[in-house]
Write a structure and sequence with these properties.
Elements lengths: L1 H64 L6 H16 L9 H24 L4 H4 L2 H36 L3 H8 L26
Length: about 200
Amino acid sequence: MNSTLKWLIAAGIIFVIFLSFYGMFKGFYNTSIELQQGAKTSWGNVESSYQRRNDLIGNLVQTVQGAANFEKSTLTAVIEARAKATAVTIDPSKVTPAQLEAFQKSQTGVSSALSRLMVSVEKYPDLKANENFLRLQAELEGTENRIKTARDRYNASVEPYNVHILSFPNSFINSFIGHFTELPYFKSDPGAEKAPTVKFDFK
């Protein structure tokens, strides 16, 4: 009888320990998924903002192409930079610092080419007065602000996720699961705090 009781007590203790560990793993996993999905949603907004810029650039190129003798090399640089940027795709749940750096570099190339295009427009008074061009210029300004906001929100959503999976005991639990990895942050390039110049002096 005593032997049976001892086994029941031991089984009960093991069961309680199992439930405790199960609860810890379940809580860690579910919270990690929730925070990871938040980061993925924020990344989707980043991509959406950049896609909006790419669409506007396509319309801008078409408008500028209509200007007589406009520099073809400048247009080509914008088109090529845009094509390179759209070719860089990222899985936000598995993004590495190197992948994010490549993505950011390609988008910086678009900003640089776009800035050169806008400066070139100064030589074309008729183009500067084109209503369609002026509308696209204003939309681009707004889009650059959207991009900055989306990137900031992505960084803000990555922080609680990284803290959650890297802090103890979650890091210990994750070492067994091996499913969740640290997500990188957007880092500003020198001068990246300023949106590409798209304003002109019409005097």
